[in-house]
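Archive maintenance. Older records in this collection stored only the sequence; we are now back-filling the structure field for every entry so that each record is complete. The fields below show one back-filled record exactly as it appears after the update. Entries are processed alphabetically, and Polygalacturonase is next in the queue.

ARCHIVE ENTRY
Title: Polygalacturonase
Organism field: Quercus lobata
Length field: 269
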Amino acid sequence: MDSKFTIGAVCFMIIWLALIRKSQGADINVIKYGAAYQKKKKKKKNGAKADGKPDDRQAITSTWKEACTSTDPSTVVIPKRKHMVGPLNFQGPCKASVSILVQGYMVAPIDLNKFNPQDHWTVFQNIDGLMVSGGGTFDGQGSLAWSQNNCAKTGICDSLPINLRFTGVTNSKIQDITSLNSKSFHMNILNSKNVTLQNITINAPGKSLNTDGIHIGRSSRINITHADIKTGDDCVSLGDGSQQINVENMTCGPGHGISVGSLGKYHNE
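Back-filled structure field:
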């Protein structure tokens, strides 16, 4: 009797631990699709090169596709190294919740031709239950683009790449990341619902043109808390269709504060 009980208890524990592990999901490191820590002779095709050599986009995209198609919660891990990355599209919907742990230093191309016709560098689209965190940085390398933009004189700003765009994102959280020197807006929340941005750092010089910190449009239940924003335009700007926007414990400066813009541009606003 005792031996049967012991065997049954052990089997139960094994199953229980397996279920816990499954519920926690898997960590998928972008290095899986590359050879950052291997010798050059063993380098894999389209791999993430965490030494900072271009271009890690394909490896990150492949890692995302694996995580997004998994039926279990998954985490995409971008390790603590410099990653030169072209335009990224984290496209949903996904089969389960996905977290992106950005520990590294992401660097955008300087050449604007790398983005045509895209107006963003990194976009998260049609995702429910997204978590972006990790303490990493998205460096837009925008200084050259600011000098090419003549909107300070003409009032008409060229469409330049946004560092981070969240479109159709719901029930999600973005925390502990930095947006640095974006060519245009640092973050754009569009057509999204129930999104929290916490412990966000945004940094660009006061001379940077049209670099709104966080722009929100056609979105609701957006919470911004404990943000440190230094930029050349509005720290937070609200566009058309924005509802239930909460901003608290934010520091702003340099910057133009919080603005409500574009109201009346569309019918029945």
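Update note: Confidence is low (pLDDT under 50) at residues 16-24, 35-46. The first strand starts at residue 26 and ends at 29.
Entry marked complete.
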